[in-house]
Amino acid sequence: MQRRQLLQAASAAIALPGFAFAQAYPSKPIRYIVPVAAGGGNDMIARVVTERWGKLLGQTMAVDNQSGGGGVVACQLTANAAPDGYTLMQGYVATHGTTPATRKVSYDAIKNFTPIGMIGATPNVLVVNAEVPAKNVDEFVKYVKANPGKVSYGSAGAGSLTHLTMELFKQETGTTMVHIPYRGIAPAITDLVGGQTQAMFPGLAAALPHLRTGRMRALAVTGKRRSPQLKDVPTMEEVGFKGFDAMQWYGSVGPAGMPADIVRRLNETQVAVLKSPDMAEKLAGEAVEPWPMTPEQFGQYIAADIARWTALAKSRGIRLDE
């Protein structure tokens, strides 16, 4: 009698929607959409992580680069996919932070996605041209205030993290600088080291080669702790800017409504990949530190980042679709 009851209970469980699917997941390759063209840092991070992640899951994770619309195309494809765990996306600070904060987009960065987990993050670094006399943040603030209208800063484009981080700095310090937006980080750095602009807040990976040659000087990094690659450079918090922890971050998301069992399986295996002994070394090429989180923690991080940049954009009058 007891055996029959156990068999009936098992049959009933298997009949529950999604039970058998979750147990068998994944039974085919997983599409991993990356919202940038192949070859850059974002793409490299995706390929390093998914290679190992797929092995732990027992299935291939196929990277699919979809760079249209500054990430909007990738977000639409992901949001409209079946929430079955076979379409995931590498969300990052632009798609799920600065872009929805500064313009109207065809997706809701919170409601249309299921957070899987944070992958990692890299700080931005406040840098100045080598000819600027300031050796620290306090001296730089004094220099800018002593030269009203004469100091300009470059960014990777209007609404980018490099733009908004410097606008946050201007707001916190009460300074005025002229914004020069570029089409990407490379030309912005070229003009900074050439002296056409005086300051910038690039991501650490882009800045490092020029910091090592002495063509630009680092004054501070964002984030809650110093970067292992710039151990002598203080954080913005250390020099008095509480909460100035803007980061270039990367994480995985899926369509809204994914089954909890599948989200948990994906998160646990992703965390295992990030905690492997040599993963930090592999991501160091992009100055990214592994930053594993639960799905709940990652969802909260996304919401807080959007709120932060939305508030800043509103206070600074930054709206790019008007």
Structure in words:
- By secondary structure, this protein is α/β, with parallel strands linked by helices.
- The protein has helices spanning 2-15, 19-24, 41-57, 72-79, 94-102, 137-146, 161-173, 185-193, 204-213, 260-274, 279-283, 295-316; strands at residues 30-34, 61-65, 87-92, 113-123, 125-129, 152-155, 178-181, 199-200, 216-221, 247-255, 289-290.
- The strands form 3 sheets. A 6-stranded mixed β-sheet has the order 2-1-3-10-4-11, with helices on both faces. It has a 3-stranded antiparallel β-sheet with strand order 8-5-9, with helices on one face. Strands 6-7 form a two-stranded parallel sheet.
- The chain is globular and about 65 Å long.
- The termini are far apart.
- The model is unreliable at 3-21 (pLDDT under 50).
Essential attributes:
322 residues; alpha/beta; D-Maltodextrin-Binding Protein, domain 2; six-stranded mixed beta sheet; three-stranded antiparallel beta sheet; globular
Give the SSE map.
Elements: H1 2-15, H2 19-24, E1 30-34, H3 41-57, E2 61-65, H4 72-79, E3 87-92, H5 94-102, E4 113-123, E5 125-129, H6 137-146, E6 152-155, H7 161-173, E7 178-181, H8 185-193, E8 199-200, H9 204-213, E9 216-221, E10 247-255, H10 260-274, H11 279-283, E11 289-290, H12 295-316
Parallel strand pairs: 1-2, 1-3, 6-7
Antiparallel strand pairs: 3-10, 4-10, 4-11, 5-8, 5-9
Helix pairs in contact: 3-10, 5-12, 7-12
